[in-house]
Each structure stands twice: as structure tokens, then as C-alpha cells.
Design goal:
The protein has 237 residues and is an alpha/beta fold. Helix content is 51%, strand content 15%. It folds into 2 domains: 7-70 and 206-231, no CATH class; 77-196, Ribonuclease H-like superfamily/Ribonuclease H (Nucleotidyltransferase, domain 5, 2-Layer Sandwich). Helix 1 crosses helix 2, helix 3 packs across helix 9 (213-231) and helix 4 crosses helix 5. The mean pLDDT is 87.
Length: 237
């Protein structure tokens, strides 16, 4: 028997509201799967952390894809940065792009930090954004300049470590999750997790500064309304 009218949840023993809440908790906050299991138990729902993991992979991907299709066009000033991730004792690099407002445009986990890797990121960004930026902001890594000359030669490029704090700070959620998960395992896991995490984080990227409390509450309510629509059910109370 199903407890949801949404066809995505047909055949699942738990109500759609429980599944959507588990997915939201896992990707919205730096919580381990066992922490999500415990939080659901506190609400009277007994479910294993392995079940939460399977829900996160299946429904998280579908929700992220829907959010990505509904997302508004982002700013035309792109901030790019890369950070080292140690995975199974080997160095990898998490390349990330955000716009001027801090919304994540895309991420790419690669084993190299050269011009070829930078070109791959720029091509991926152009394909997803459907346009070139007005301004590209990076640190002084020479790979960015080499890639930009080939992929988007007409774009203004500003290279300075001090003006790229927005991109540098955008890595903080990944670092917090990395610590919670006691380091990421294969590179594919990082890419898969962040491709789901970032659209959800973008939806709830609500800045408190320079806005009245009433405006913030309205924006928050709208974010939850959008979540309810893409998840096929409102969050559990």
C-alpha cells in the first residue's frame, strides 16, 4: 500500500513526507546518515541509515535535476577556485564556480590542476549556463589564463588572490561535509554528492544581511514551497 499519490513514491513503505524529509536533512545540513536516522527516530520513524542512503541517491538526484531546471539565470560574473581533496591517500582537486551572489554554478572533481583540467571546467560551465560570463575572477593559477585564452578569449579576466574570496569561501560547506563523513571515498562519490547538494543549497541560499526580517521570512517560505513542489510532497512537520 502506498501513502503518496506521487508516482515516484509508489511501492515505498514509508510516506512520501518521511522520505522527502530524510533527503532534505541529509543534503541541507552537515549530518551523517546515522544522524539522520536518529532524527527520524525522534519523530517516531524507525528507518536504517542504509535506507536513508538509498533514498538520498534516488530521490536526491531527481529533486536536484528538477531544481536545476527551475533555477533562474545566474549572474554573469563567475568566480572560480580549486581546492585540494585527499581521497584514498591521493590528491584530487575540487574545481568550483560560483556567481557574484554565491550561488554554485558547477563543480568538477579532477586529478590534475593544469590547463587541460581548467579547460574541462570552462567547457562544462558554458554548456550548462548556455552563455559566457562578462567577467571571470580567479586566483593567479596560470592554468586559468591558458584555458580562458582558448575557450573564451573575449571575456575579461581578473586574476588576484584577494578579490576571489567568494569562490574560496564557497568551499566551506564541502569541507564541513568532508569532516562529517571522515573524508570522501572515491572521486565519483564527491562528484555525485555535490551534484545533488549544490542545487538544494542554492535553493536555501537566503542571505540575512541588508534585508528586513519580513523579506527573509517570505523568501524562506518561497524556498520551502518550491521544495514541496519538486519533492512532490511538503516536508514533514
Amino acid at each position: 500500500m502506498t501513502t503518496s499519490r506521487d508516482p515516484r513514491y509508489v511501492g515505498y513503505r514509508f510516506p512520501a513526507e518521511v522520505i522527502a524529509t530524510a533527503v532534505w536533512l541529509h543534503f541541507r545540513f552537515p549530518l551523517s546518515l546515522r544522524m539522520v536516522e536518529e532524527m527520524l527516530a525522534a519523530r517516531g520513524t524507525t528507518v536504517s541509515h542504509e535506507t536513508v542512503r538509498k533514498w538520498a541517491l534516488k530521490f536526491g538526484r531527481e529533486i536536484a535535476d528538477r531544481l536545476r531546471r527551475r533555477a533562474p539565470r545566474r549572474g554573469d560574473k563567475w568566480h572560480l577556485d580549486e581546492v585540494v581533496l585527499t581521497i584514498a591517500g591521493k590528491k584530487h582537486y575540487l574545481w568550483q564556480a560560483v556567481d557574484r551572489d554565491g550561488f554554485v554554478l558547477d563543480v568538477l572533481v579532477q586529478s590534475r590542476r593544469d590547463a587541460k583540467a581548467a579547460k574541462r571546467l570552462l567547457r562544462k560551465l558554458l554548456k550548462k549556463q548556455g552563455r559566457a560570463p562578462r567577467v571571470l575572477v580567479t586566483d593567479k593559477l596560470k592554468s586559468y589564463a591558458a584555458a580562458k585564452r582558448t575557450i573564451m578569449p573575449g571575456v575579461e579576466h581578473r586574476q588576484h588572490k584577494g578579490i576571489n574570496n567568494r569562490a574560496v569561501n564557497s568551499h566551506q560547506p564541502t569541507r564541513r561535509r568532508e569532516r562529517q563523513m571522515k573524508r570522501f571515498k572515491p572521486p565519483q562519490q564527491v562528484q555525485r554528492f555535490l551534484s545533488i547538494h549544490d542545487p538544494i543549497a542554492n535553493l536555501f541560499h537566503l542571505r540575512h544581511d541588508h534585508r528586513p526580517a519580513s523579506d527573509y521570512r517570505a523568501a524562506c517560505a518561497q524556498a520551502f514551497t518550491t521544495w514541496a513542489e519538486v519533492a512532490g510532497t511538503p516536508l514533514a512537520a
